[in-house]
Specification:
By secondary structure, the protein is an alpha+beta fold. It has 14 helices and 22 strands. The strands form 6 sheets. It has a 5-stranded parallel beta sheet with strand order 3-2-1-4-5, sandwiched between helices. It has a 5-stranded antiparallel beta sheet with strand order 12-15-18-22-19. The protein has a 4-stranded antiparallel beta sheet with strand order 6-9-7-8, with helices on both faces. Strand 20 and strand 21 form a beta hairpin. The longest helix has 21 residues. The structure holds adenosine monophosphate and glycine.
Length: 429
């Protein structure tokens, strides 16, 4: 069958790569794609991925049988709804389901109604009431802009003054319309762990867990980013915690079926914190995680076309997931200056040599092919260097051996991906 993937990041490269391995995959299109997807799929420029009509027209013209929506933006504006109405099988929730990510207040109310463990919270629509609440609660405390803010709308404030400033920034328009409403949360503690799940017709089929590294610099210092590295599985989560996380995802899946007119069909991303009282949800996302996908899908031994088709058709009983025992570690190579401003157009070398190392795959994010065939940087996060190996330590060493073979001007990365986890849970004490 012909398949269309929407998106251009490392996540979409990994999804398209996994789909392309299926015998059921004929022509594969990625819109807009990147320099990596261009090597095995057809990149499609010139369609607006946030216009359901434009995507449907392309899908009709190319006999597409499955559309996979990578990022949150098209989901939130209802691209999945338009495509489903037009008769296409779609992997990705309706606009209503995507509100679990698109509005933090919506998501918190969903969790409260359905007894899903999460941080205590209150929502405000004016600055004075929000500031009074912050002062009464004291620090540490977490301030979040309600809407999508590209991962930048969250401030974990250690002191009250920082929380008050975050509240003012939101209401002064610092996050645009995303900040017209503000969610203030109790500050939870513990390691974070992501559990992505194939959700369809009220059933959760959880994927292997992964742990992201959100801060820009070694030692979890510096500003929050989209994610600078990741690994899977997550040995610091106990069997008991993993079981509780799976139960919470199943409970959430049942709630989506009960509440949403169109049942949720796609990936539900549970961002967990392993608190002293047990795992709690930090946030839900309505899509695959980036960079989590880049270590989770290489460990999936099942046919991703079969899995996504079953989810898209509302047949979760047909989803069968088998996982490799191998460990996966991925290091993100970013442009100098990321997550702030950065330059583009730097020549990238060494990917072929890196991929010759055993178990190494490089997923592209911000790259593009120049007309002369050279590969150039075109974004903040540029490459995800992934290594699979029989032990955690070997996967980590192999990922860094590959990192050292790749070069571009301003290459910036963390040297400590997975280092804390290798020390064990006590490193979080
Ligand atoms: P979010 O965009 O909601 O995932 O938040 C970004 C990051 O902020 C999370 O990955 C956590 O590290 C941190 N965070 C968010 N909410 C809380 C909370 N209630 N307590 C502690 N840390 C939080
Ligand atoms: N890895 C964090 C996210 O995808 O939101």
């Amino acid at each position: 069958m012909n398949i269309l993937v929407l998106g251009s990041g490392g996540r979409e490269h990994a999804i398209a790569w996994a789909l392309s391995k299926s015998a059921r995959c004929d022509e594969l299109f990625v819109a807009p794609g990147n320099g990596g997807t261009a090597s095995f799929a057809t990149n499609v420029s010139g369609i607006n991925a946030e216009s359901g009509e434009e995507v449907a027209t392309f899908a009709r013209e190319h006999a597409i049988e499955l559309v996979v929506i990578g990022p949150e933006a098209p989901l939130v504006v209802g691209v999945a709804d338009v495509l489903r109405d037009a008769g296409f099988a779609v992997f990705g929730p309706s606009a209503e389901g995507a509100q679990l990510e698109g509005s933090k207040d919506f998501s918190k109310r969903f969790m409260a109604r359905n007894d899903i463990p999460t941080a205590a919270y209150a929502t405000f629509e004016d600055a004075d009431a929000a500031c009074a609440y912050v002062t009464e609660q004291g620090a540490p405390i977490v301030v979040k802009a309600d809407g999508l803010a590209a991962g930048k709308g969250v401030v974990v404030a250690e002191i009250v003054e920082d929380a008050l400033e975050a509240v003012r920034t939101c209401f002064d328009g610092g996050f645009g319309s995303a900040g017209a409403r503000v969610v203030i949360e109790e500050c939870m503690t513990g390691p974070e762990c992501s559990m992505l799940s194939f959700v369809s017709n009220g059933v959760s089929n959880p994927m292997a867990p992964a742990q992201d590294h959100k801060r820009a610099y070694d030692g979890d210092k510096g500003p929050n980013t989209g994610g600078m590295g990741v690994y899977s599985p997550v040995p610091i989560a106990t069997e008991d915690e993993l079981r509780q996380m799976e139960d919470i995802m199943q409970h959430a899946a049942e709630a989506t079926k009960k509440e949403f007119a169109l049942d949720y069909r796609g990936c539900l991303y549970g961002g967990f914190m392993l608190t002293p009282e047990g795992p709690k949800i930090v946030e839900f996302n309505a899509r695959f995680g980036d960079p989590e996908t880049q270590v989770v899908l290489p460990r999936l031994e099942s046919d991703l076309v079969d899995v996504m088709m079953a989810v898209a058709q509302g047949k979760p009983e047909e989803v069968e997931l088998a996982w490799s025992d191998k460990w996966a570690v991925s290091v993100v190579l970013a442009s100098a200056g990321y997550p702030g401003s950065y330059e583009k157009g730097k020549v990238i070398t060494g990917i072929d040599a890196a991929e010759e190392l055993e178990g190494v795959t490089v997923f592209h994010a911000g790259t593009k092919l120049a007309e002369d065939g050279s590969l150039l940087t075109s974004g903040g996060r540029v490459l995800n260097v992934v290594a699979l190996a029989d032990t955690f330590e070997a996967a980590r060493n192999q990922a860094y051996a590959a990192v050292d073979l790749i070069d571009f001007e301003g290459k910036q990365f963390r040297r400590d991906i997975a280092a804390k986890a290798l020390k064990g849970r006590s490193a979080w004490a």
